[in-house]
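Record Solute carrier family 40 member, 506 aa.
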Amino acid sequence: MGVSTLLLGPIIGDWVDNMPRLRAAQEALVLQNVMIALCAGFVFNLLEFGPEIEEWGQWASIAHYVLIIVLGTAAFLAHIANTITVERDWVVEICDRDEDRLASMTATMRAIDLTAMIVAPIATGQIMTAASSKIGALFIAGWNVLSFFVEYVLLLKVYYSVPALQKDKDASTESSAENSFSPKQNSELVESMGQSRTLMTASARTKSVKSHSKAATENLEFGDKQTSSKLQQGQENNSCWNSLQRMFSGVTIIVEGWKTYARYPVMLSGLSLALLYMTVLGFDNVTIGYAKMQCLTEFHVGLMMGGAGLVGTLGTFAYPVMRRCLGLPWTGMVALTLQSVTLSICVVSVWLPGSPFDLEHPDSTGMSCEGNSSSSSRNVTRAISALGDEGNSAGMETNMTSISVLMAGIIAARFGLWIADLAITQMFLETVIESERGVVNGVQQSLNQFLDLIKFVLVIILPKITQFGLLVILSYGFVFSGWVLYLVYLVRVPRSIFVKKTEIDV
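=>
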């Protein structure tokens, strides 16, 4: 998914820019829900008929896995298109380009997303626990089919209730290039130049007929044939050039997309946001796997994920207030500072009791978690009760100080993280012109996924539990680099850029 987004992000954004608003949202929504439903269907098929599929041969199982990956990736790309369309374009027009309303609406939408991120795993987890994974797959497929109709109706209702969304993008876009012609002016200019050339040619030919003999006329006819041959050759060359352009259109869109992204002053803030994605200090699969190896059960991990979602939701509520009091640029600065401070606790946890960090003995397995399972938390309870029992060697084996401090830092950092994300996102919403919102945000998505991809590469290079401390330190280094880059942006970009709508020079 990361590689596909890295390569296709600008292309998806360009597609959104060149599509009518409603059609882009409709197609993205259809593709997203259909792909998820099909993916869940193949998962169910693999779980229910696994032995029968294996009887067909190994190729059948491999085909199922490939289809699941392809459909999941396609659903993720459709999700990106839907996000760019609704959350990066529609929302600006719905708020009538009012900064205060924009802050409140983006914060509300993010709070809804975070709430869904808390509720969805709990609901699906309960279904899979009470029934089975097969029933869970069917539930996900059915949910996406049913929710599609609700989403589609709501989408139409919003579109037809906001007149600004029904206008053509070019018609309502503020011009960002001084002394440039509009498309209509350019077409009129080309047409006028063509008519002028035609009149001049006709006049010249009339004079030539009147002043020259029959031999001159024959020469003119020969010249016309020669000109016709050149024109035909030129048309063939143009046809080849157009074919090459179509062949490499994707590459051209990507290159032009990055150039467009680099023109905007908010590029530095976008880079600082992307650096936050190179981290294991979040509740992704890497950190959850490490937590389980540190004797935390799924139950405790679920509680911590819920706590992180709650702290992040509090950040979305605080964001509009902070923006009004501090202004948009300084809100981002304060948020990134809060995140850096709280994540420093995670760095400290690397050297606390119970940490498996040991570069001298990389093959050490760390704690012993015998009997640890999702259905029982007795071992974790005993481990927590052993905190501080330095004289007891068994207590040392299950010392939870390090992992507890690590998780506390990750949870606390959610507050600053989501405020920073909202602030930087609004900077793009306020400064990027309407006709380029898609491609610019597509490039930003590519940057985010690129840094996320680097994280997984580092995990492959440093896979052992004793090396996880290095990943924590590297993650904090990237987060702090994002803070430094944002500080540079804050110094270089005048605050007045967010006081009124900006027109950038192209």
